[in-house]
């Protein structure tokens, strides 16, 4: 990850290196920190309440048995430092609601994109859907409901029944953005959310799992057609 942040405590020299990958939720970050011996899982979750999306993924140097509030402060300060370096994001820092919306969109992009160059296009699909007042139809939001809201294990596949789970985070049932971020996104996803590409696309689907490439389409019929082509190719391998 980027710059290493240090928490230096008086009389304590031993520091623990903890890497927080992009796209983790608060609860998963809490598990990593507890496993590393930095702070307790419950303490961190309590300190980070309401801050999903604002804990910047990075490599941190932290003292063992740190105060959870201090760790959260370090991560959120890192978030604001990072966005201050990107003009389109820095401009949002003074508008809390707009920033939260951008971070929420970025958190969904984070869980959907595989290749960084496609992130702005994925952002454009969601931006177009928001403008049209239709659901984002993101499986990532359903996964969040299953694992973080309902506390169930991560599903191998999303079923049709899963798409019907009643939750404000389910973007198959609700138009627009969910009420808050679903993970802590990278700068790639944050920048894409603030600067979506200009496109006429309303759909995308993964077409090359190995390369992490998606195909983008304008209409539902094109989307279905591309899905059928992908399934035919997959079956013939």
Structure description:
The chain is mostly helical. It folds into 2 domains: 5-84, Dna Ligase, domain 1, CATH 3.30.1490; 102-199, no CATH class. 44% of the residues lie in helices and 9% in strands. The protein is built from 9 helices and 5 strands, in the order ββααβααααααββα. It has a 3-stranded mixed beta sheet, covered by helices on one side. Strand 4 and strand 5 (213-217) form a beta hairpin. Helix 5 packs across helix 6 and helix 6 packs across helix 8. The longest helix has 17 residues, at 68-84. The chain is globular. The two termini are 37 Å apart. Mean pLDDT is 90; it is low at 228-237.
Q: What Rg, in angstroms, do the CA atoms define?
A: 19 Å
Largest sheet: spatial strand order: 1-3-2
Percent in strands: 5-15%
Shape: globular
Helical proportion? Answer: 40-55%
- Report the oligomer: single chain
The largest pleated sheet is described as: 3 strands, mixed
Short account of what is shown:
With 237 residues, the protein is mainly alpha-helical. It contains nine helices and five strands, in the order E-E-H-H-E-H-H-H-H-H-H-E-E-H.
Characteristics:
two-stranded antiparallel sheet, 9 helices, 5 strands, mainly alpha, Dna Ligase, domain 1, 237 residues, 3-stranded mixed β-sheet
